[in-house]
Design goal:
The complex is a heterodimer. Chain A has 4 helices and no strands. By secondary structure, chain A is mainly α. Chain A has a single domain (about 5-110), classed as 3 helical TM bundles of succinate and fumarate reductases (Up-down Bundle), CATH 1.20.1300. Chain A is elongated, with a radius of gyration of 17 Å. Helices cover about 35% and strands about 15% of the residues of chain B. Chain B has 10 helices and 7 strands. A 5-stranded mixed beta sheet of chain B has the order 2-1-5-3-4. Chain B has a two-stranded antiparallel ribbon with strand order 6-7. In chain B, β6 (about 95) and β7 form a beta hairpin. In chain B, α7 runs antiparallel to α8. The relative contact order of chain B is 0.13. The chains are: A mainly alpha, B alpha+beta. At the A-B interface, α1 and α3 of A face α8 and α10 of B.
Chain lengths: ~110, ~240
Amino acid sequence: MSARAQTLLWIAQRASAALLGLCVLVHLATMVYAVRGGLTAAEILGRTSGNVAWFVFYTVFVLAIAVHVPIGLRAVLAEWAGWRGRGRDPALICLAIFLVYGGMGAVKGVFR
Amino acid sequence: MNTLHVRVWRGGVQGALQSFDVPRHASQTVLDVVTHIQRALDPTLAYRFACRVGMCGSCAMTVNGVPRWTCRTHIDKAVANENEITLEPLRNLPVIRDLVTDMREFFDKWARAKGQFQGTLTRKDDFQKIDPESADRKQVDTSIECIGCAVCYSACDVVAQNPDYLGPAALNRVWTLVKDERDEKTLERLRAVAGDAGCHACHTHMSCTEHCPKQLSPTAGIAGLKREVLSAVLRGRL
């Protein structure tokens, strides 16, 4: 992989981390606020279903995770498991696809 | 007269600690102790030194688990338990024998990082004028006193986990060249130090900065290289 490509991965890792910091804060604040008055799951779903703003927010959240996790794991696998071979990056691309698939499934579930 | 109980690594990769009793003196350095052992107790002890005044960078060892330059480390400072000291070779470098490590990989990485100055002038040109107060020159000044002792390399956990990592000293050297306005190979250097084996592998543990005997901060230089590489990539120059 070229120096430029490795640098772009590093930039993506940092940018997604910044985004995740914001998303986690909003997510936690929302959770604390939502359960404060004893909301049920059905009531929460009633507020998220069809709400485009929440759909966009959690889509961004999922995509940031799908970018951040595989790049971070790439370094962890190299340093802690010694896996630097050719199979590593394709495996991590599969993981990214899985994270998008699973995450977007959950987002669609609360949007419907 | 007090006696210092010294445990010294003997052997290569496989070996064991051997104990010696050394007379303790005022203002005694760790290198004085090693020299006493080699000259008075066991002439087969292998160790390396040259200048004895903190300039050559050849006498670094692991002293009570901490990488140090031994010629400028007083026993009083290094002894953790009363009158006991353990001396081992530097970490992260192959051991040749006893306290001597093979430094080739350490210096090869300086070359791999493009650590050689490349100017634009010839001997027929006049001296290039550098403003000592310029921002770039000030950054060079804070990083340029490296003596190549490999203490930072030995202290770095990333080197331990990633053998390809260029290490703090080589990256610090490149930082001084990138900020040197006489140098013309900036892009080539940035290409050499970007990525998994270069500045982006640094976890900012700051062990190099903590242990550098010259009080340099390779961590700051590595962070600077990350910024320079980022800027070059975003401008499409890299």
